Records
---
Amino acid sequence: MTKQTFIKGALILLAAGIVNRLLGFIPRIALPRIIGAEGVGLYQLGYPFLIVMLTLISGGIPLAVAKWVAEAQSQGDLKRVRQIFRTALSLTLLLAVLLTTLSLALADWITSRILTDPRVYHTFMMMTPMLLITAVSSVYRGYYQGKQNMIPTALSQTVETIFRIIFVLLLSSLFLPWGLEWAAAGAMLGVVVGELFGLLVLLLQFNRDRRKELLSAAPEPAAGDSSASATDGDQQLSAQPSAPGSQSSLHKSGRTSVLRRLLGLSVPVTLSKMVGSLSYLLESILTARSLAVAGIATGVATAQYGSLQGMIIPIVLLPTALTYSLGVSLIPSLSEAAARNDKLTIHKRLHQSMRLSLVCGAPFAVVMGLMAEPICRILYRHGEIAPMLQLMAPIAIFIYLQAPLQAALQALEKPGTALMNTFIGAIVKIVLIVQLASKPELGIYGALIAINVNTVLVTLLHYWSVRRLTGFHLSWLDIIKVAAAMVIMGGALRWTMNHGFQAAEWVNLIAAGALGAMVYVMLMAVTGIVDRHDLVRLPLIGRWLNR
C-alpha cells in the first residue's frame, strides 16, 4: 500500500479537492436556474438535520481511526490495525441503522415541528439512506488516512462528485413538474446516488488491498522442513485443550480495549462537532423564525436562506479544498510526531499548514470582496445577493485558518479544548442571530453578521489554544507581507475591471482574476513567502527544479 509524506498526501487531497470544488459548482450554478432560490432553500433546509445525525454516527470515529491506525502502523502492529478498523466499522453500522430507523419513523414530526417549512418532508425522506452510506464511507476514509494513503479518499470523492452532479441535475429536472418540493427532493436523491458510488470505490479499493496483503503474507513451504513442521504440529496439538478459551478471552479483551480507546477519543471529538452541528441546525431554525418576526413571509425567508447557504457560502468555502486536505493530512503526521515527542516536527507541520492556508486563501478573499457583484451575476443571475458575499469576504481568511488549527488540537489529543472553543462560538452566534435577524432593517444580514462573529471568535480561540500547548505562533512579518500583497492585488483587479476589454463581463472578470493572480504570485516570490523549497515539493514542477 502506498504511503505518502505529509506534503504529498496533502497535495493529493488538494488536487482532488480543487477538482471536486470546481465540479461541484456545476450543480451550484445550474440548480438555482432549475428550481430557483426557493427550491434551493428547501433543498438546504434538510441539510442541518442530516449533519446532526451524521455527527452522532461518525463525528469522531474517522479521526480516531486515522490516529490509532497511524500509531499502530508506525509500530508495525498490523493485527492492531485490523482490530481498530473492524471495531470502528461495527460501531458505526450499529449507530447508523438505529438513527436511520428513528429518522424515518419521526420524519413527519421533524419536518412539521422542528424544521420551519413542511414542504421539506420529501427532501428529508430522500436523504435518510445517506446516513448509512456516508457513515460507512467515513470509516474507510479514516482507515486510509491513518495509513497515510490519500489516493482512495481522493478518488472516491471525485467519483462521488461526478455522479452527484449528473443525478442532482437529472432528477431535479425530472421531478420539477410535480412541484418545487419534489424537485428539491430529486436533487437530494441525486446526492444519495453520488455517495453510493463514492462508497463503491472505497470498497473496491479495500478488497483489492486485502487480496494483496493476503498474497504477500502467504507462507511458502520449503523442502526439508517436514520434521520441524511435525514437531510444531505436536506442540500445537498438545496445547490445544487450553488454547480456544484463552484465545477467545484475549480476543474479547483486545476488542474491548480497542473499543474503549476508540470511544475515548471519538466521543469528545463527536461532542465538539455536535456543538457545531447543533449550532448549524439551530442557526437554520432560528434564522427562519427571526425573519418571520421581522415580517418576512415564509417563502421569501426560505429563498433568502437558500441564497445564503446554497449560493454565497459555497463560493466562500471554495478554498477549503486546501484547508481540508491539510487538516486530514496533518492529523496522522502530528500524531506520529507527538508520539515521539518531536516538537521540531510539530512546529514544522503547523507552520507549513498555516502558511499555506494563509497564502492560498488571501487572494480568494480579495477577489470575492472586490468582484462580488459580477461573480453573483455571472454564476447565478442574481446580482442582488452580492452584498452578502462582500460582507463575508473579509472574514473568509479566518475560515481557511480554522481547519488546520482544529485538526492540530485533535491530533494533540485535546478535543475537549476544541469542544469548548466551538461551544463558546456557537452560543455567541445563536444569541446574535436572535437579536439581529429579527430586526427588519437587518433581516438576513443580521444572521450573516452572527456567522462572521462566530468564525472569527472560534478561530482565535483555537489559535490561542494551539499556541499555549505547543508554543507555536504565526509570523507577524508573514502576515504583513500577505496583507500588502492583497492590497496591491486588489489595485490590479480594480484597474483591469475599469480599463478592461469592451467584451462580455465574464471575459473581463477572468482577465482581472488572471492578472491579479499573477501579481500576487510574483509578490509572494519577491517577499520570500513562497520559495524554491516550497516549489520543489510540488509534482512535476519540483522534478523540473531538481533537474
Note: The two ends are 28 Å apart (CA to CA).
---
Amino acid sequence: MNKIIHLFIFMFLIVFTAIPMTAGAATINEQFNVSDGVSYKDIRYSEDSIMQAVRVMEIDISNPDTYVDIGVPTALNRLQTTTAFANFYSQENRAVVGAINGSFFHLGTSMNLVSKDNRLVHAGEVYDGEEDKFVNKPIAFGIGENGKGIIDNYQLEMKYIHNNKSYSITSTNKARSPNNTILYTSYFPGETTKTNQWGTEVVVTLPSPPSLKFGTTVTGKVESIRQSGDETETVIPKNGFVISAHGTGSEQMSDIKVGDSISLSIDIDSKWQDSSFMLASGPMLVKDGSVSVTMNQDSANAKYRAPRTAVAIDRTGEKVFFVTVDGRQSGYSNGMTIKQFADYLVNLGAYRALNLDGGGSTTMVTRFPGTDRLSVANSPSDGYERSVSTILMALSTAPLEIFRDVASSHWAYPSTTKLFRTGTINGYPGGYFEPNGLISRTETAIMLTRELNLDTSQVTDPGFKDVKPTDKYYKEIAAAANAGLFKGREEDMFVKAGELTRGEMAVLIQRAYHIENTSNSYFPDVKTSHFAYEAINALAYQGIAEGMPDGTFRPENSITRAEFSELLFKVNY
C-alpha cells in the first residue's frame, strides 16, 4: 500500500509540477524534498538533438526552518570543493542540505564583492564598460534585512579620510595595479602586502582589528610610511590596515605623516544595509521576469555552450532557486549559451537571475534520500569536483528526514535516524525504509551484527543447512550465530527469509544484551511453557518491550522493521 501511495504522489508531481518548456520534451529524471522548504529536481531534455541536464533546487525562505547563506573561506585564497565548504558549515541543528558554487575566482581569490553579516569580506572588482566580461556591472545576490532574496545593483563606497579630505579606495586585499589604491587587512593571505616598490604604503593601527562593517567609520594612527622606491616589505598589522597606492593615489598621500589620524569608511547603498550577505557576480540574466543580459551576447564568453550556474528569485523574494546545467559532455549535456540559460530561467519562473561562475566550477550538491551526507548531484565537466572560492547554501533547522517514508512526526523517527547514523540500518534503494514491512531473520542478524560490532572477519560455519559461505550475508549470519544469538529454527535450518516473531525478538534481545530474568509475569497469552516466556517478561520488566492495547503480547506475531529498530534504540540509547 505504501508503495502505491508513493507512486501516486510521484505521478501527481510529475503531471502538476511546472517544468520549463523547451523545444524538446522535458522529463524529470528525479525529484524529492530535501528538507522542509527545500526541493530538488533533475530535469533532462533535448532540443534539436542537443541534450541538456539541468538541476534545480527550490528554496522557500519564508519557511521558518529554511535559510540561504554564503560560504566563505577562512583565508582569502583557501579554495575548497563545494562539498567540503558545505560540510564545514553544516551543524547538528542547522544543517546544509544543498549548495552550489559561487564566485568567479583568480589565483585562488574571489574576483568580486563578498560580504557577510553586513560586513565587507572582499571588495573584488568590476570590469566597468567591458561588456565582453561577465562582471561588467556591480550586481549582487543576497538576503536583505527583511529576510528576502535580492538581485540588484549595489554601490560600494570605500574611502580614507585625512585632514578632513576624503580619498577613494579601489579595492581590498588584491594585487595593486597602476593608479590603484588598495586596502590590505589581516584577511589578506600573507603577512605583507607583497607589492612592488613603486607606490606609497601607509600603515595604520587601531585598538582592534577593523570589522569593515557597512555604514561605519574607524579612526587609527599612522604607525609608519613606506615611500615609493623603498623595497622594504610592508607588514600588515593584525589590529589595523595598510593603504597602498600607486600613481595618483600615491600623490594624494604626500602630506601624510607618522602619528597622523586616518579614518576608514566603508558603506553600501541602503537596500543592502544590514543584509545577511552579498555575493557579486554577473551578468544579470533575468530582470523583472524578462531576459535582461548585462553583457555582450555576441562575445565569446556568452556565445559558447558551457556548463552554467545561476541563482534566481521569484517576484516576492521568498523563493530562491539554485540552477545548474551541465555541459561539454556530448550525448549527456552540451551546456547552454548565456542567452539560452537566461531563456531557460525565465521559463522556470525566475523574476530575477544572476549568472555565477560556470565551466568546470559548475557544481550542485544535495542530500539524497536514504543518506544524511551531501554528495554531488550534477556531473562536473572536469570529471571531478573543482575547488572554488565561495558557495551558496540552503540550510535547514528542521529535523532531517533520512527516509522518505519515515517523517519526523513518525513514532520511529528517532530510532531509525539514530540507527542509520550509527550504521546499523541502511534502508532500501530510493531512500525508503519500509517501517511497516516485516523484518526477516537475515535482516535481524545484519542489524545485530552491526549494532553489537561483531567480528565478521574470522567466523566459523554456523551449521545451518540453508546458509552457504557464498551467500551475500553469510558472515553476518555466522557472526550472530557464533555469538550465541541464533540457534536455528527447525531441523538445523536458519530460515533466512523467515519473518521474525515477537517472541524470537525477545529472546534475541535478551541474549544480545544479557538481560536478567524476572519472577514477574506480565502477559496472559505468554504461558510458562513458551520458549520466550523468560525473555518476554525480562524485557517487559526493563521497560524495553510493551504489550498490545488489550494487555496481551502475541508472541507468534511477526515484528516490523520499525518495531525492531525501536527496541534496539531503547536498549542502546
Note: Residues 1-19 have pLDDT under 50 and may be disordered.
---
Amino acid sequence: MLENEPSIQSILFYSTPQPIDNLEQSAADWKNILFADTVSFNYPVTSNYIDINSDSNKLNSNSYASQTLSERINEASEANQTTTDSVLVGYINITLDVQAMREYWYRTNLLGCLIITIIAVLWVLYILRKLKWPVRDIESLTKVCEVVLENPSIDQLPVISQHFNFKDLILIKRTFVVLFNRLQKVKQDYEAIVAFEQQLHTKDVSLDVQLHNFQSMITHELKTSLNAIVGGLQLLDHDALNREQKDAVEIISSGSEKLVSSLDHIIQLNQIQKGQIHINYSEFNPLQLIADILVEFEPIAQKKGLELVSRVHHIDYSLKGDAEKIQQILSILLSNAIKFTPVGQVIITSQLTHFDKSNRWQISVKDTGIGIDSHHIDDIFNPFFQVDSSKTRQYEGSGVGLPIVKQMIQLMGATIEVDSTLGVGTQFIITIAMPTIQHSWQQSLLAGLTFIYYYYDEVGFLGAELEHLGAAVVYCQHEQLVIDEMKANKVDMVMFAEDIFPRKAESLASRIRKAEDDHRALLVYWYSPHQAQYLDSFEHGLKVAGIDYCCSAIYKDKDLSDLLQRWMVWK
C-alpha cells in the first residue's frame, strides 16, 4: 500500500489490550487539511474470536501471525457472525502526506479550477456592470430634475436616458413625464384663459364705451327735442285755447314731463357709470328732509287713495352728508311704492343711532303693494329691467330708477336691503354712515387734491372717506376712462379698489406710467384683509408695474388720514 499510495506516509500497528484515550482525530479539522503537512489517523483493532486468557490462544496467536491480511479479515468476519463479544487487539496508525495530496489534487484539477475562477470573475464583473446601469439612470433623472428646478418656465422636458429596464425607475420616469405634461397643459390652459379674459375685457371696455356714447347721443338728441316741445308748450297762450285744446296740451305736457324725467334718470345713470357724479357733503336736518318729501308726495298718495305715514324715532339733529342725493333716493323709492300699491298705505321710517365718531341713519320705505317675486329681487337693480316686460304691462316706467338708487347708495358707501313678499308688499331699508359735526374739520385735510378711484363693481366706503377728508374723487369703472381723466386733468393719486384683481391693476398701472409726462401720480392698491396672506404672490408684480404702495383697506378716519399724509409727504 505504501508503494502504491504515495499519499500514505506510514502505517503502524500498536499491540495493546488496554484502550488509549485521545488518539482519534477529528474529521472536521479543516485547518489541518489546509495548512498541515501530515495528518495521522488512529483506529482500534478488535477481534471476536481471540481469548487472551486461554493457553490455546497462544497457538492461535502464532498461527494468526502467520496469516495474510485477507485471511485475517475473513476469519474476523466469520468470527463476528458466530459471536458478539469483541476483544481489543491494538491500534493502527495511518499517517497521510497532506502536502503530497494537495499537490496531486492541484495537478489533476488545475484546469477546472482556473476555468471556474475565470467564469466567477466574469460573472462578478457582469453583475457590477448591471448594477451601474440603474445608478446611471438615477443620475440622468436627477439631472433632468435639476434642469426643471432651475428653469421653471421650461417648455420642453429634456430627454431622460434609460439603460436598464428597472420597473421602479421606469414607473418614476413615466410619472415624472405625465406630471410635466399635465403641468404644461395647465399652463397652456391658463395662458389661453388669460388671453381670453384680456379679449373679453377689451371687448367689454369697447362695448361699455360704445354703450355710453350711444346713451349720451340718444339722450342728448331726445333731450334737445323734448326741450323744444316743452318750450313750445310753455309759449302757448292758454287763454286763447278752448277746453279740448287745453286737455290736449295737458296730455302732451304730462307725457313730456314723464319723458323728461326718464331721460334725466338715464343721463344721471350714465354719468354715475362714467364716474362723473360726486358726493357733496353739507349739513342738513333729517327731519326737514323727510318733511319736504312728505309734502311733495302727500297729494299724489291722497289722489290714489293711499295713506302716507311717517314714523320718526329720533329728535331734531344735524347730520353731514349729501342731502340732495338722499332726497332723490327717497323720492324714487316713494314714487315706486305709491305706483305699485293699489290700496293700503306707504310708511317711511327714520331711525338715528349715535356713535363716538359717526352716526348711523336708517331709513325704510314700506308699502302694502303687489310685492316682488323672490326670483327677481336681484334683477330689479339692473338698468331697464322690468318684471313685466310685455307691451301691455299695467305699470309704466323705464326701469332706471332703482339702478340709480343702487349706484348712489354705493357712491355714499351706504347699504340697501330689500324684503318683499308677492301679494303682501315690499320694504326697502337704507343704512347710511355719516360723520359727526365735531369731526368736520378733517374735510380740509385733502382739500385741493384730485383722486381717481378705480373700482370694478362696488364703490365701497373708501371713496366716501376720501371725499369726507376734502379730496375731489373721480370714480371710474374702466381703464380707458382713467387714462382719459389723467390726460385731461392733473391727478394726484389713483386708488385701486380692493375688488380689482392684481392682474388688472398691473395692466392699468403700466398704461398710466407709459402715458405720464412731467407729473407723476401716486398709485395705491388696496387689498382686502383676507388677501393679506397672499400678498407675496402679487405685490412684486404690482411694484414692477408702477404701483407705489400696497395697503390693506382702512376705513377709520384717523388711520386713513395719517396714512395719506405720510404718502403725500413722501411724494
Note: The mean pLDDT is 78.
